[in-house]
UniProtKB/TrEMBL annotation:
Name the UniProt record assigns to this protein: SIR2-domain-containing protein
A GO cellular component annotation in the UniProt record: nucleus
Binding site for Zn(2+): C259, C262, C283, C286
Organism this protein belongs to: Piedraia hortae CBS 480.64
Pfam annotation, one family: SIR2
InterPro entries attached to this UniProt entry: DHS-like_NAD/FAD-binding_dom, NAD-dep_sirtuin_deacylases, Sirtuin, Sirtuin_cat_small_dom_sf, Ssirtuin_cat_dom
Family: Belongs to the sirtuin family. Class I subfamily.
Catalytic site positions: H251 (proton acceptor)
Lineage: Eukaryota, Fungi, Dikarya, Ascomycota, Pezizomycotina
Keyword annotations of the record: Metal-binding, NAD, Transferase, Zinc
Length: 425
């Protein structure tokens, strides 16, 4: 579970629009934190860093769709930084082109709008139906799969944000006003008991995985899986038999744990009993306790022992640097090599994973599988319903798995010709 959803790319933090110069416009490749650390509250739209709005006394001009299209083409050609440097002095037109009020410009909103445009994708009109989805699966041999919490919820592992049942809502019902504190590294270091009291809700059953995990293994067995970028921390892909070489755990996992003091790393299951008991797990490998004086004037009788360090699962907490493996693998290889993108069980709300579709080469088909549709990314085909049911149906229709169509459900068009919802019949 756990969508701890952020390379060396940077958002345009600390920017200033106005005056005679432009300050602190960082290069943008793949936005995350300016120091590569996971930031709380960073969503697909990016943070707004400006606290004030700038009033522009400029004549109103009507932009055209052609002008907007020209802006988008130029943006994608030169990149965010150079684009902004070229057009910051024509803010009226720039704001209009990106759907903002040209008379009152919030710098943070303007830059977020530019980022969204840069990382957006255009739907491919030739792909719309369930048969199209099956054909794409059968003809593709380098499938990039993005997975989220929705592929594990059938095991009782909660996702983070579902109303009522998500992990954050559960924490709020328990009286935690700031549920993200559970995954804040400063909070963990000052009081690890907060995490340990609640982590059992997230701990996976290491003896079970879902049909969707089996589908990932099937793609691998068919020599079709390029990489699975998982936002989950349950490590169930590997339990299902997916090779570690094919998995990038974007936000770490329970697979290992590391001592905050001596950095000794152990298999994750070593600390599972403590997690299930709600007890802070301590390192068994730390050097013998040292004696620590409380002050220079105190004698030895007032010294206190420095005990063993606290074990922390190797999950990426807010405030920790993200793994380089995500950025290195995606930007140096997969973004160029993939011939199909599947997003399964994720709402794609948090950067940088949310921006992966917009980074792919033009013409690469995208299929989305989840309970509810996404509106902020133009997928070519959306298949809505239970992930486990949908992927099993696709596998049978592709001829990869023995069995026959059950007749218990059908896919019906849901509003748009490329959106299909699985329905019981």
């Amino acid at each position: 579970m756990a969508q701890h959803e952020d390379a060396e790319s940077r958002p345009l933090d600390g920017h200033s629009l106005g005056g005679d110069d432009v300050e602190s416009i960082d290069p943008v490749a793949f936005p995350s934190g300016s120091n590569g650390k996971r930031k709380r509250g960073e969503t697909v739209c990016g943070p707004s860093t400006a606290k004030s709005k700038m009033k522009l006394e400029l004549p109103e001009e009507e932009g055209t769709q052609d002008e907007e299209s020209d802006y988008i083409s130029e943006l994608r050609s030169v990149g965010i930084q150079d684009f902004l440097k070229r057009h910051l002095w024509n803010l009226n037109e720039l704001a209009q082109a990106f759907g903002l009020d040209p008379t009152t410009v919030d710098p943070g909103r303007l830059i977020s709008a530019v980022r969204r445009a840069f990382y957006s994708r255009t739907k491919l009109p030739q792909y719309n139906t369930l048969d199209d989805a099956v054909s794409l699966l059968k003809s593709s041999h380098k499938i990039l799969v993005i997975t989220g919490a929705g592929i594990s919820t059938s095991l009782g592992i909660p996702d983070f944000r579902s109303p009522g049942t998500g992990f954050y809502d559960r924490l709020q019902s328990m009286g935690m006003l700031e549920p993200e504190d559970v995954f804040d590294i400063e909070t963990f270091d000052s009081d690890p008991s907060i995490f340990y009291r609640l982590a059992s809700l997230l701990l996976p059953d290491q003896n079970r995985f879902t049909p969707t995990h089996s589908f990932l293994k099937l793609l691998q067995d068919q020599s079709r899986l390029l990489t699975n970028y998982t936002q989950n921390i349950d490590n169930l892909e590997r339990l299902a038999g997916v090779s570690p070489a094919c998995v990038v755990q974007c936000h770490g996992s329970f697979a290992t744990a590391t001592c905050r003091r001596c950095k000794q790393q152990v298999p994750g299951e070593t600390i599972f009993p403590d997690i299930r008991a709600g007890k802070v797990s301590l390192c068994t490998q730390c050097p013998a306790p040292a004696r620590k004086k409380r002050s220079q004037n105190d004698d030895d009788d007032s010294d206190e022992d420095v005990g063993p360090g606290v074990m922390k699962p190797d999950i990426t907490f807010f405030g920790e640097k993200l793994s380089d493996s995500f950025f290195a693998r995606f930007e140096s290889g997969d973004v160029h090599d993939a011939d199909l993108v599947l997003a399964i069980g994720t709402s794609l709300q948090v950067a940088p994973v949310s921006e992966m579709p917009g980074r792919m080469k033009p013409g690469i088909p995208h299929i989305y599988i989840s309970r509810e549709p996404v509106r902020h990314i133009d997928f070519d085909i959306q298949l809505l319903g239970d992930c486990d049911d949908i992927v099993q149906e696709l596998a049978v229709r592709a001829g990869w798995r023995e069995g026959q169509l059950t007749g218990k459900w059908e896919f019906a068009v849901d509003g748009e010709s490329h959106v299909h919802r699985l329905r019981i019949v």
